[in-house]
Amino acid sequence: MKTLIKTGALLASTVSLAMLAGCESTNSANEGFKGSLNAVSQTAVDAKASASGFAPLAPLPVSPAIPADNKQSDAKVELGKLLFFDPRLGGDASISCASCHDPSQGWAWAEDFSRGYPGTVHWRNSQSIMNSGHYPGSFWANSVTSLEAQAPSAAKGGVAGNGENDIMTARLALIPEYRKRFNEVFGDDYPRIKNAWRAIASFERTINQTDTPIDRYLNGDKSALSEEQVRGKALFEGKAGCIQCHNGALASDMEMYNIGVPPAKRWEEDGLAQITFRFELYAKGSNEKLYRTAKADPGAYFRGKNKWDLGKFRTPSLRYTMYTAPYMHNGAFYTLEEVVDFYNKGGFDEEDRTTGWPKTKSKQIKPLGLSDDEKADLVAFIESFSGDEILMDKPDLPDYAPMFTLEELKEAKK
Amino acid sequence: MGIRATKKRLLVSVAVGLGLVLSANAQAASKYPDIGPLPNVKINKNKAELGKRLFFDPRLSGDAAISCAHCHNPEKGFADGMALSDGYPGNKHFRNSPTVINAVHKNRWNWDGRLGTNLNDVTRGMLTEDYIMNMDMRIMQERVKQDPVYVKMFKDAGYGEPSNGSVRKAIPEYLKTLTSKNVPFDTGKMSASAKKGKALFKGKAGCIQCHNGPNFTDGKAYNTGVEENWDVFMDTDRHQAFLAYTMFMGVENYNNLKRDPGAHIHQHNPDKSDMGTFLTPSLRELTHTAPYMHNGMVKTLDDVVAFYNNGGGEDSNKDSRIKKLGLSGSEQKDLVEFLKSLSGDPLTGDKYVWSEDYPEEYEAIENWRQVKN
Questions:
Q1: What CA–CA distances, in Å, run from B146 to A283, B123, B162?
Q2: Which chain B residue shows the shortest CA-CA distance from A295?
Q3: Which secondary-structure segment (H or E) carries B278?
Q4: Are B197 and B334 in a shared domain?
Q5: Domain range for residue B111?
Q6: Is A339 inside any structural domain?
Q7: Which position has the higher pLDDT, B21 or B139?
Q8: Of residues B237, B66, B52, the one with CA closest to residue B157
Q9: Same domain, A251 and A370
Q10: B242: which chain A residues are within 8 Å (Cβ-Cβ)?
Q11: A46 and A103 share one domain
Q12: How far apart are CA B328 and CA A332, in angstroms?
């Protein structure tokens, strides 16, 4: 319930209904939705949406909810920005958060799998941190419930940052500027690593985009969407049925589904990716049978080891997707056109490949019968969830300095 | 153990019989396990060969940049020739890299002696320590499984499928092959000066009080007053590793430490009398492994002998046995000659070194969808 309460706070209307739907959606309780909402008024869509158990699309609030135990301040955000770009928060001090969440790559990584720690490759697509402060959880399986918990998981994961608390803490202590800033922001004598994650989370909560065409449109500027996009919106909320999961202010219900994304072909061709695939099965806890036989990402299964969660992943937000290709948990599709084609075929790619976990594939995913024009309209509408690209230069990072002078060292009693 | 004990008794009685009991210290010498040749160890050839390939393989570190051999280089007597070792990229180490030659003949490892079980644990410790090789062993296992050469070698070695457990067995098996070879002291081909030095070692100089047994170490930690190497603190790359280590090992007030705590790191004597104590190093292979001491502060063997002749360095915890020795110039020279007689042939060449290339990329497993992981 905790995550749902957080989500609920973001929704402009139909909060309680959305929450109830959220409780049930992993068990496909939304199947009552028939996707027959063609060309009806926004009010009617809203009403129907509520009745069908999902939130209507909504403008994104200007800033996300701030957790009571990690209040924002300018100094904290500024510290978080430095830390976000600082490669010393990682194993060999060569990659930072920004390495896999690169502002110039949509605050993500523009390849199918995230680049991973040197000597490795990740096994999932790097998700943009854009608007992530609004998310009730993080990672493709929603496996953590806060940005404060996401940061250390990423910084310490073997195919991500591969850092350990002790050496990362030690590095922070050797940077006088950080000692000063952690003291000012958190009152730390020496920087505590937990506070590094809190500062990074605060910084991430400032990386939002709220002035997209869809936001302007939903706020009453009917000229914000082109005719093509308006038609796409009707399809999105009607014939194409996207709104069943891509709803609310994030255009995501943040729930888990298996929509039929085929396993990454890269696992068949790339030895490094095969290593990581087995490592993840091993590290996340598989029984012998799963370890030996899995050929697709078990996804949300690892959270509760329930077989009905096999191959399920969180509905991604559609915001900022113009800049975050490729798409899906394994980066299977490089263009929005491919994504729409995939859905139009009922969750099959151009080679008719689908999920490696067919038993859990959502019944909501069916052939849509969209014409080429309709598909183009839908793509145009999805693009309305993105505004201008938001870029950020890497800040100048503070240097290490010895803790002691030679005189202080020599004076120490032996 | 049985064989070793028998040999020791034999050697002690020979020594006594030869009338080497020359002084008070020499009488004391009989109290200590005598110096002598190292025992033979049985080696499984296939396992050792596998361990050799693993030892030189940089893919056994987190970012695949360094192998065990990076700090235990055969060209440098399986040490690295530097005062303080490199460690993992992103940081540097805060201690001298000890040779792994004869490591199999020790019963306690690391300068602080924090590992006292077996080389399997030492291997795991060095691979996984974040400032040394920073390897997640689960990733290591899957890397090894991805290399067909390893798959065959593990099978041939009787380990079956590659696993991180068998990596930790194979590397120690290889380390068994790194035993001193053709050592003048062992073969008896010592110069007259070295022989005089040997008598001093066991007698007037009192070295044998700690440097005893076939590997010239009692496996215990002492403070001899070796000067601190300030690079540990002044070089932030080293200091960060030092802080990570002291933090992890639970030393209080680690941020304010201005000296290397040594064995205190795991002994935690409440009175801190174990601060700055370090394990007695073996004296074998010294000619290949300069500089000396836990922090490389002593550059030559002449300096080492001069250091002890002066009664060691300054330290409130200095062991009471470290006193001025009153050795003459020629006695010091004899002692150095004896120390040199404890080094054998360099362990280089294909017998000891894996010289074949490693694949630059991991080959994909064919028919991946059809075969079991």
A1: 17, 21, 9
A2: B369
A3: strand B278-279
A4: yes
A5: 45-177
A6: yes
A7: B139
A8: B52
A9: yes
A10: 170
A11: no
A12: 78
The answer to whether the Cβ–Cβ distance between B141 and A282 falls below 8 Å is: yes
Residues B133-161: tens digit of each pLDDT: 999 999 999 999 999 999 999 999 999 99
Say which CATH number the domain at A190 has. 1.10.760.10
Asked if residue A390 is part of any domain, the answer here is no
> Are residues A223 and A326 located together in one domain of the fold?
yes
pLDDT tens digit sequence for A42-59: 444 444 455 567 899 999
Q: How long, in residues, is chain A?
A: 414
Which residues in chain B are contacts of A91 at CB distance < 8 A? 62-63, 88, 90, 130, 134
Minimal Cβ distance to B258: which of A277, A279, A404:
A404
What confidence category does residue B2 fall into, taking pLDDT thresholds of 50, 70 and 90?
A: very low
pTM: 0.90
Number of domains in chain B: 2
Based on the fold, state whether residues A91 and A139 are members of the same structural domain: yes
Structure tokens at B353: 């070194």
Residue B105 lies in a domain: yes
State whether B64 and A118 contact (CB < 8 Å): yes
Average pLDDT over residues B242-259: 95
Suggest the residue from A99, A123, A171 to mutate for an interface test with chain B (most B CBs closer than 10 A).
Answer: A171
Give the residue-averaged pLDDT of A257-281. 98
Q: Where are the alpha helices (DSSP H) in A12-138?
A: 15-24, 42-52, 74-84, 97-100
A41, pLDDT greater than 90: no
Q: Say what the ipTM of the complex is.
A: 0.91
Chain A residues near residue B65 by CB distance under 8 angstroms? 92, 118-119
The per-type count for chain A, helices as H runs and strands as E runs, is 18, 2
Answer yes or no: do B125 and B186 share one domain: no
pLDDT at A52: 62
Strands A313-314, B278-279: pairing is: unpaired
Question: What is the domain extent for residue A12?
Answer: 2-60+216-255+317-383
Task: Find where tokens 């915890």 sit.
Answer: B317
What CATH number should be reported for the domain holding residue A371? 1.10.760
The predicted-structure confidence for A335-356, as pLDDT tens digits, reads as follows 999 999 999 999 999 999 999 9
Same domain (yes/no): A249, A348: yes
Q: What is the CATH number of the domain that holds B139?
A: 1.10.760.10
CA distance B50 to chain A (A): 20
Look at A275 and B130 and tell me if their CB atoms are within 8 Å.
Answer: no
The pLDDT, as a whole number, for residue B11 is 42
Tokens standing for residue B128: 């996984």
Distance CA A334, CA A122 (A): 17
pLDDT of residue A4: 37
